[in-house]
């Protein structure tokens, strides 16, 4: 009996190993037909088990000196974010990553990016990788073609300048709360968590009309104990965002299974809470429309109104497309998902990089004080936003060095596709996933010169010759575009990020509040000089983690303690 049990226990991994070896060989043969360099991986990059704990296994092996160099470099989830341009310098602008579950074309070349993005019927979004955003069903991020157009048309029109102004004001007020909190809670090693609270509060106001005063990570816990259910919605969203991978693996109902940990069961409840909250807002807005009142400015209200308009036009015989209640909920979730942690991660990187580079802080503060001389922040007008070019340059530099998505993922689908790579036309086999690596392209010396891994935001600013300057020199500075063939932090083409300006306004407003009157520096470890601490935090900031989350975050953010002080103190 015991022998039978042991044999069957060994048989499962044995069979899995044989299946992996055979699949790997088959995929390798297909990849060889491209003539591109190959990088072989024994574990499929999107293997669910590996998503949950693969990186920890690799890091442990790395620490204990177990395994090959190849295993240490290429088996973590999100390896490409840490490799940046290095692997492409070794293997070229495009190579095939071969695994048992399929082949990946990894690209750092701007012209291949352009071809893939613009041939959008040949190279489609890889929906498998976006599956986890279907928590509430299909939405903008998980559909294609006509269905996608319907989602995009209705939801994108709600991103108006009026909404951006709301984002500006709300971000100023939240950043104010955040800096007060940090001044009281020195030294701050919770910047990564605190910035997520900041962006969650801004989103809550812009999308759902919920206004919260800022409480940092430590205070937020105490606040939960107050049992005031006004925080229920925001906390539900926060919990869902932090557990998208368990949700993908188990689904809403599966999270409640007897064997799941308590936190997963709570996530299931949060999914229901968020659904009922948005349903409530939809019903409220429909009732408002019936009464002829249309004053709500939040995005849910705007989407409901857009849907009602479409229905009205449809009744007049015009061909239109509207969204169901389920689809509105799903889109609001995806906006919150796509807009929250992305922006928070960038803000965290930004602040760490600025702490490491005091000269950049002075450079940015000079601009902020020039355009916002009034101490009273309530007078800061939204029209100042485009003038704050140095602020935008530091955001672009932070995105260049550490992008929260790391790559744009497309696929050939069921057909082979021929694509120009350098001087060769390469035919990619069917079902090839294409990984356009932002991390590699944004740091490749071909595009960024000899200092691609250095922090240098002024690379995005040019100053005209002095004889061409009429007003203050700072006003003549020219900001590079946020979209160039070799720089695509918000993507480009049809699926460009609809929240681009939202995030820019939010981050610039935060910088204005944080840096106009304050200075941030890293807290040195015992015996460490300030200069050494600056170098350490910059290097730490470049190390990226991706396990258990679909975004690329700073791996050791808790090891970085920041000190804030008022200017002149
Ligand atoms: C600095 C912050 C942000 C960055 C770097 C960023 C970047 C991107 C990128 C690169 C894409 C394209 C993804 C792909 O094609 O695979 C994207 C899509 C998207 N972003 Fe953003 N984003 C940011 C903030 C926001 C915000 C604040 C919102 C909403 C409030 C938002 C909503 C979306 C949505 C809904 C999509 C999917 C669009 C579609 O598929 O049609 N993003 N974002």
What structural class is derived from the secondary structure elements? alpha+beta
Give the strand content.
Answer: 5-15%
Portion of residues within helices: 40-55%
CATH fold topology of the largest domain: Cytochrome p450
* Total number of strands: 14
Task: Give a short account of the largest sheet.
Answer: 6 strands, mixed
Annotated CATH homologous superfamily of the largest domain: Cytochrome P450
CATH architecture of the largest domain: Orthogonal Bundle
The number of distinct helices, counting runs of at least 4 residues, comes to: 23
What is the element layout, followed by pairings?
Blueprint: H1 2-32, E1 38-40, H2 48-64, H3 69-74, H4 79-83, H5 86-91, E2 94-99, E3 102-107, H6 110-118, E4 124-125, H7 127-130, H8 145-156, H9 161-184, H10 191-208, H11 217-225, H12 232-241, H13 244-254, H14 262-290, H15 299-315, H16 325-356, H17 358-371, H18 389-401, E5 407-411, E6 417-421, E7 424-428, E8 433-437, H19 438-441, H20 445-448, E9 461-462, H21 473-476, E10 478-479, H22 500-516, E11 518-522, H23 530-541, E12 544-545, E13 553-554, E14 562-566
Parallel strand pairs: 1-2, 3-8
Antiparallel strand pairs: 2-3, 4-5, 5-8, 6-7, 9-10, 11-14, 12-13
Bound molecules: protoporphyrin IX containing FE.
Family: Belongs to the cytochrome P450 family.
Keywords: Heme, Iron, Metal-binding
Pfam families: p450
């Amino acid at each position: 009996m015991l022998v039978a049990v042991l044999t069957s226990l060994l048989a499962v991994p044995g069979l899995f190993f044989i299946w992996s070896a055979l699949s790997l060989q088959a995929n390798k043969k297909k990849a060889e037909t491209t003539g591109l360099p190959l990088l072989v991986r024994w574990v499929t990059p999107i293997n669910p088990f590996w998503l949950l704990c693969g990186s920890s296994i690799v890091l442990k092996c790395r620490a204990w000196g177990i395994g090959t160099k190849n295993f240490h470099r290429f088996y973590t989830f999100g390896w490409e974010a840490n490799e940046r341009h290095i692997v492409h310098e070794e293997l070229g602008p495009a190579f095939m990553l071969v695994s048992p579950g399929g082949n990946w074309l990894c690209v750092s070349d701007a012209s291949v990016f352009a071809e893939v993005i613009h041939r959008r019927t040949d190279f489609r979004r890889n929906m498998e990788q976006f599956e986890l955003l279907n928590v509430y069903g299909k939405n903008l991020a998980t559909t294609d073609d006509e269905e996608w157009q319907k989602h995009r048309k209705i939801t994108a029109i709600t991103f108006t300048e009026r909404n951006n102004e709301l984002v500006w004001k709300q971000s100023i007020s939240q950043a104010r709360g955040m800096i007060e909190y940090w001044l009281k809670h020195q030294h701050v090693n919770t910047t990564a968590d605190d910035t997520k609270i900041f962006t969650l509060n801004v989103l809550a106001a812009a999308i759902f009309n919920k206004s919260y005063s800022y409480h940092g990570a430590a205070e937020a816990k105490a606040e939960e104990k107050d049992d005031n259910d006004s925080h229920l919605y925001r906390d539900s969203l926060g919990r869902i965002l932090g557990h998208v991978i368990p949700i993908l693996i188990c689904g809403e109902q599966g999270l409640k299974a007897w064997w799941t940990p308590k936190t997963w069961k709570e996530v299931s409840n949060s999914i229901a809470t968020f659904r009922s909250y948005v349903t409530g807002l939809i019903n409220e807005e429909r009732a408002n429309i019936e009464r002829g009142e249309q004053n709500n400015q939040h995005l849910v209200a705007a989407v409901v109104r857009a849907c009602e308009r479409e229905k009205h036009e449809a009744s007049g015989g015009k061909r239109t497309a509207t969204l169901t209640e389920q689809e509105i909920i799903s889109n609001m979730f995806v906006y919150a998902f796509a807009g929250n942690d992305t922006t928070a991660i960038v803000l965290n990187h930004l602040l760490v990089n600025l702490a490491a580079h005091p000269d950049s802080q002075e450079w940015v503060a000079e601009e902020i004080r020039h355009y916002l001389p009034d101490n009273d922040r309530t007078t800061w007008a939204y029209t100042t936003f485009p003038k704050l070019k140095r602020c935008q340059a530091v955001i672009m530099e932070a995105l260049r060095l550490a992008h929260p998505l790391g790559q744009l993922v497309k696929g050939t689908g069921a057909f082979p596709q021929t694509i120009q790579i350098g001087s060769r036309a390469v035919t990619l086999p069917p079902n090839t996933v294409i990984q356009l690596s932002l991390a590699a392209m944004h740091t490749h010396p071909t595009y960024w010169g000899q200092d691609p891994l250095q922090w240098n935001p002024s690379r995005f600013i040019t100053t005209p010759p002095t004889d061409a300057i009429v007003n203050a020199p700072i006003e003549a500075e020219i900001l590079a575009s946020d979209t160039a063939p070799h720089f695509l932090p918000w993507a480009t083409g049809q699926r460009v990020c609809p929240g681009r300006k939202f995030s820019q306004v939010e981050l610039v407003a935060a910088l204005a509040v944080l840096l106009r009157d304050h200075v941030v520096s890293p807290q040195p470890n015992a015996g460490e000089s300030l200069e050494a601490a600056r170098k350490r935090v910059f290097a730490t900031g470049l190390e990226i983690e991706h396990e258990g989350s679909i975004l690329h975050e700073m791996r050791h953010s808790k090891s970085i303690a920041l000190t804030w002080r008022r200017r002149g103190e």
